[in-house]
Amino acid sequence: MSQYRGDWESQSEDEAKRKVLFRLKSKVFKERFKEEFEETGKKDAGIISRYISTNAVVLDLGCGVGRVIKYLAPHVKELHGVDVSEKMIHYAKDNCREHKNAYFQVNNGRDLSLYRDSMFDFVYSLLMLQHLKKEDAFKYINEVYRVLKNGGRGLFQFPDKHASIYWICSLYNLIDRKPSKMRLYTEWEAKKALRESGFVDIKRVPLTQNEINLLAEKRV
Hints:
Elements: H1 5-9, H2 13-20, H3 26-48, E1 57-61, H4 69-72, E2 78-83, H5 86-95, E3 102-106, E4 120-125, H6 134-147, E5 148-159, H7 167-172, H8 187-197, E6 200-204, E7 211-217
Parallel strand pairs: 1-2, 1-4, 2-3, 4-5
Antiparallel strand pairs: 5-7, 6-7
Helix pairs in contact: 2-3
């Protein structure tokens, strides 16, 4: 079993949602976190849809409970969600049950061997790579390159080491021993990882404020 799976299997759906929304102040967090969670999914889906066509086959890497898939699925041909946690996939299937073009699978936490080469037009990974050891995150970037079609693009999100909101994470990481603890990145480091996997035309795009969001293309 993947070393990361246990951290997520022990969480309820609400706990997983709260982890996404950890930035919110406690008062707002308690009163309307479910509404805020849906709003972030809708917002992120709206931005991602600008980069893909309606006939695209798309992969959400680390889909969690289906936060983005729920709102992006109506705008694409197929949307595949993959996650290391069986529990998260169960929640995602339930949350996205009205979308017949949404498909979900549990992977091994190491690679994307479930999917064939050059299968997807677009792959995105939000709030996921940060929970992996960097060497494992870089392996996943290689795998994204493999499963993308020539000319396909990937959208990768990394927590910005220089964002003030993540300073507390730097301190907490000194004592956190969980495999899925947060890893922080510089923009240079994130772009270097994408280049080494073969990606070109790497550019930062406006998706979220405190993260490094990089759009990159596979061109063979």
